């Protein structure tokens, strides 16, 4: 495969994994908020909670992997066409470029999402609220490393991408979380046979 094509594949794959993780996180948070506001059967609640915590954890893992993958993909697209990607080149792109300064903000928020996910797993009282806030902030920082930032006034494009991402995450992510929880509950319910 040609290096330019490989570069585009790496960039697209990193973005897709980012979106997959963010949609999963958003779905877990949204369904948890819905479940918390609706009275569900007490014997079912721990199972639902456990499944949503698992979904949030796996989605957070995807986000962390995607943050690193996007740094590699960006470095490859800048330098990898002519020379192999090294740690020094990763450092240059991640810490000394315009893209890297925006990526650092996104990576820092991804780490905060990871900490909030650990709070949820540890059953800290404010864990889900912190995860919800940091998930929204992660959506806010995602467009900072995209093509919209190359325009002279990217605010409108940034707002469109953030609102579109949040809406898609809330819709598709919540449907996926509901499907996951519903499938598991139907499978484990002896009356569903």
TrEMBL record:
Transmembrane spans:
16-40, 52-73, 103-120, 127-146, 166-186
Q: Taxonomic lineage per UniProt? A: unclassified sequences, metagenomes, ecological metagenomes
| Keywords annotated in UniProt | Membrane, Transmembrane, Transmembrane helix
Q: What is this protein called?
A: Copper resistance protein D domain-containing protein
Q: Which organism is it from?
A: marine metagenome
């Amino acid at each position: 495969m040609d290096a330019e094509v490989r570069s585009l594949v790496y960039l697209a794959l990193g973005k897709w994994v980012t979106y997959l993780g963010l949609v999963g996180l958003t779905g877990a948070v949204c369904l948890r908020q819905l479940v918390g506001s609706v009275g569900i059967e007490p014997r079912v609640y721990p199972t639902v909670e456990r499944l949503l915590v698992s979904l949030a954890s796996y989605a957070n893992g995807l986000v962390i992997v995607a943050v690193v993958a996007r740094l590699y993909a960006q470095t490859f697209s800048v330098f990898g066409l002519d020379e192999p990607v090294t740690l020094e080149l990763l450092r240059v792109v991640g810490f000394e470029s315009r893209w890297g300064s925006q990526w650092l903000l996104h990576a820092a928020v991804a780490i905060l999402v990871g900490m909030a996910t650990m709070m949820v797993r540890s059953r800290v009282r404010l864990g889900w609220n912190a995860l919800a806030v940091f998930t929204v902030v992660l959506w806010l920082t995602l467009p900072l490393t995209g093509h919209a930032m190359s325009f002279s006034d990217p605010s409108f494009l940034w707002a469109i991408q953030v609102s579109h991402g949040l809406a898609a995450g809330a819709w598709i992510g919540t449907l996926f979380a509901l499907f996951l929880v519903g499938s598991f509950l139907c499978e484990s319910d002896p009356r569903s046979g």
